[in-house]
Amino acid sequence: MLSHSRCLTRNFSRSLSALRQGNQALARRSSTALTINHSISLNNIVKSNLPTNVFQIQYFRTSVAYRDEVVTVKTPAFAESVTEGDVRWEKAVGDTVTEDEVVCEIETDKTSVQVPSPAAGVIEELLVPDGGKVEGGTPLFKLRKGAGAPKAAEAPKAEAPAAAAPPPPSAAASPPPPASTVGPIPTSMPPVPPVPAHAMDTKPVSAIKPSVAAASPAAQAEGAAKGVRTESRVKMNRMRLRIAQRLKEAQDTCAMLTTFNEVDMSNISEMRKTYKDAFLKKHNIKLGFMSAFVKAAAYALTDQPAVNGVIDDTTKEIVYRDYVDISVAVATPKGLVVPVIRNVEGMNFADIEKTINMLGEKARKNELAVEDMDGGTFTISNGGVFGSMFGTPIINPPQSAILGMHGIFDRPVAIGGKVEIRPMMYVALTYDHRLIDGREAVTFLRKIKSVVEDPRVLLLDM
Q1: Which residues are catalytically annotated?
Q2: Domain finish residue from 128, 145, 162
């Protein structure tokens, strides 16, 4: 009995040591040996004739680290300007998820926040309905860690017997009906009654009705197919609602006026064609037209600070900025987003192209944060990527102006008294007439035109 007690103590120590070291397999073996030795010790005590009240038996219960732990995942903290959002679930109860797999997206006024799974497991419970509103720190769902791993491993084994099973018999091989239900086959046709002579010219009504009845369902189906009129309703997401609200606020608040001009893209196109390979080789990024317009806009904003300013309606003051942060409008399936390129006045073409490429990649992956879209002193919207020829953009509040780019089309223009075909682009500047007068607006747009048509103006500072 003493040897079993020593073994019991030794197995208990091994189990505790294995638990501390995280060795679950050794902990299970030690726990099993501990249970066996514990039972042997009890049997020896019962077999002995010693009084049981002398012995004090203490039960030990060991456990291994539980993999099936249930955790509650909460809503991540939002930015300061965002207070709540709507939940859109990507997974359902019972779905198996891997670590860092997106379980849901929270759509806010400015962007969408993805909520990944903290570990591999199974979704135990959804604590918020689809489309429900949540704030920072709100419990979202319960996850049972590690619960889906064995099922995923057993899935291929379960599919093998199913694939080896023979296909079900076809309908053509179905057994014939019982003989009792089959009637005798007639050996002769019944006599046909004579038809009256006056009935030979016309068809009986009974013979016409079946053909009409058979044709009517086909005609009805054809008519129904031609006249199908369906509609569907989709709830507006928070981003789309916020965009609509801001655009309406701009129309109600700003005195918007638009001025137009056209840009000859011959020189910038020739420069891009000449240096695009060397530019790609050195900077590992392609040279586009957007960098030229962004740099030209920064140059023009420095020359015309009123376009870079804004009216503070609360204090009735005009705020002039010494820096240039240009927002670039990007269309996404969920709505229009405007990531910001900051301190453009100190950037060159390569810096601008890299920043635009980085922000565009984040927008396509839905990884834009609120900080990427906060601020902005001026906006450029490029509708030309969709083939737009002409349009009037709407100001992005609280900014005071927006530049609209459009498609490049070959058009006949007068050059030196002669008509030539040149690649031309219409540009539009919508500005707040409360702050910006027509002189500043037209001068600003002509400055952009001159820089894009001849980039040497930047070097000469003209």
Answers
A1: 433, 437
A2: 145
Structure tokens at 67: 């993999």
73-87, 112-126, 185-199, 354-368: least confidently modelled range: 185-199
Residue 341 and residue 355 in contact, taking contact as beta carbons nearer than 8 Å = yes
The CA distance from 294 to 92, in Å, is 45
Q: Is residue 239 part of a domain?
A: no
For the CA atoms of the chain, what is the radius of gyration? 39
Range of the domain at 385: 250-460
Q: What angle do CA 412, 414, 419 make, to 5 degrees?
A: 60
C-alpha–C-alpha distance, residues 336 and 130, integer Å: 23
Structural domains counted in the chain: 2
Question: Domain ends where: 122, 145, 168?
Answer: 145
Indicate if 404 and 260 belong to the same structural domain. Answer: yes
pLDDT tens digits along 300-331: 999 999 999 999 988 999 999 999 999 998 87
Return the CATH number at 384: 3.30.559.10
Strands 378-382 and 326-328: parallel
Contact status, residue 283 vs residue 354, Cβ threshold 8 Å: yes
With residue 214 as reference, give the H or E element that holds it: helix 205-226
Q: What is the mean pLDDT of the chain?
A: 76
Which carries the bigger pLDDT value, residue 105 or residue 307? 307
Kindly state the tokens that stand for 109.
């006024």
